[in-house]
């Protein structure tokens, strides 16, 4: 593995995305607009402030979904165009390529998380008991997890449509079981055990811990689990990435 080559791949990906304004809008503005839409939906509802209850979980879910889609589709586009095969024909390790992608999308995720958290807390009045900056840190880690999972999935798809088809299998179950709809401790035992091995559950727990009154120790423990899943997905992606397009 070479740091110089990893940085070169990251710079190339960032330059490519900069020339694609639609992808930039999807990455940065869409999560902010979705949070604003959520606030608008619940603004005039009587009783419990549903926005404060649901928004932390969605701050974890939206970056995960967006980065999974963008990464998997971008990688498949480069494979179908032959770019990926030409890159891997060079003296470039698979891990250099995947880490370069993760670094580039990680930087974009930092911007995305800062914007989404800033809009939610600063403009929409999200009540957060813990450090606000820690919300952005968890958002970045969750977005990197989505990036790593998208890179891993792209190794098993031959078209962009096939990459999107992995969403119902890998992303939607995590959304249903992460605690957004039903608290994890209130789920049936089997579903609770399944939820315990899904990375998005720990990202949502971390966000809820920051918004609530839990100690930051619980947050860092959940964050470490999310980071571990991201590293594992990158390692699996490097192991399954083909140097030749079939």
From TrEMBL:
Major localization listed first in the record, in broad terms: membrane
Entry keyword Cell membrane: yes
Domain ABC transmembrane type-2 residue range list: 18-244
Keyword Nucleotidyltransferase attached: no
GO cellular component, one term: ATP-binding cassette (ABC) transporter complex
Keywords: Antibiotic resistance, Cell membrane, Membrane, Transmembrane, Transmembrane helix, Transport
TM segment ranges: 21-42, 54-76, 97-126, 132-156, 163-182, 219-241
Database matches in Pfam families: ABC2_membrane
Subcellular location(s) of the protein: Cell membrane
GO biological process, one term: response to antibiotic
Family indicated by similarity: Belongs to the ABC-2 integral membrane protein family.
Name of the molecule in the record: Transport permease protein
Species name: Nocardioides terrae
